Amino acid sequence: MTIVNFTPWTALAGGLLIGAAALLLLLVGGRIAGISGIVAGIGSQRNKGWRLAFVAGLVAVPLVLFGLNVAEAASLQHYSPWRLALAGLLVGVGTRLGNGCTSGHGICGLGRLSPRSVVATLLFMAAGMATVTLSGLGG
Amino acid sequence: MLIPIALFSGALFGLGLLVSGMMNPAKVLGFLDLFGRWDPSLALVMGGALAVFAPGYWWWRRQGHTRCVLGDKLPDVPAARFDRKLLLGALLFGIGWGLAGICPGPALGLLGSLQWQAGLFVAAMIAGFWLANKAGSLKR
């Protein structure tokens, strides 16, 4: 293991903002800031308004900051369409079957000491690390 | 009132994702590359988020609140059942996450970069939600 590209301060600052956003939605609105659950619920749940509003806010901020050149978007040009489609499909199926993603399990679940979220988080982290490690071995 | 709160929370969440580096797939893949060239940054994203979220939540509960400010009951923590769906789901999600370095929040945020690749990822993810719901209703 070699440590590279470590950006502790921006990571921590961003994390604090994400935690504050999730706390606000839960304590004021009574809703879990789990992105996969919020998006999937737009199609399947009756209560859509707050979900659409949350997604609109989440998309609007990067849209504006990229548009004004305040921030630079990471380029996705090097991905093959097949890789993106397969990854997106697995992320979609997996987060629905497992009832949560990095935010729902990793923050809201862990923060509320949900045993299911502890198991899910350890498992998806391990699976992600195994995938990156094994695909790296192939060159 | 829920709609403006959700809009503001979503905006704050999006800003956090951008500032933290979660919207840069190379950084996410660097974090998952524990046994290679490891970028530990994302551990601090999760740590920072939990450092705000967990004490805030438990402080509210210790005040004796069972409801949120707007009046709804706080969602229950689900019972500790580790069924096959949870384990298989987390496994598939982790593999997909490792293939591209993009999870659902950053996928939405990357739509703001107006790259068609972000749209493709989100469309595939939504197809995945739909497939998983279908599979779930077949079993029942």
UniProtKB/TrEMBL annotation, chain A:
Lipid bilayer topology: Multi-pass membrane protein
The residue ranges crossing the membrane are 6-28, 49-68, 80-97, 118-137
Q: What protein family is recorded? A: Belongs to the TsuA/YedE (TC 9.B.102) family.
Major place of localization? membrane
Instruction: Offer a single GO CC term for the protein.
Output: plasma membrane
Alphabetic keyword roster: Cell inner membrane, Cell membrane, Membrane, Transmembrane, Transmembrane helix, Transport
Annotated protein name in UniProt: YeeE/YedE family protein
Q: Is Disulfide bond given among the entry's keywords? A: no
Q: Where does the UniProt annotation locate this protein?
A: Cell inner membrane
From TrEMBL, chain B:
What transmembrane ranges does the database entry give?
A: 40-60, 86-108, 114-132
Which Pfam families does the record match to this protein?
DUF6691
User: What keywords are assigned to this protein?
Assistant: Membrane, Transmembrane, Transmembrane helix
Q: In its keyword annotation, does this UniProt entry include Transmembrane helix? A: yes
This chain belongs to the protein called YeeE/YedE family protein
Q: Which organism does this record belong to?
A: Oceanimonas pelagia
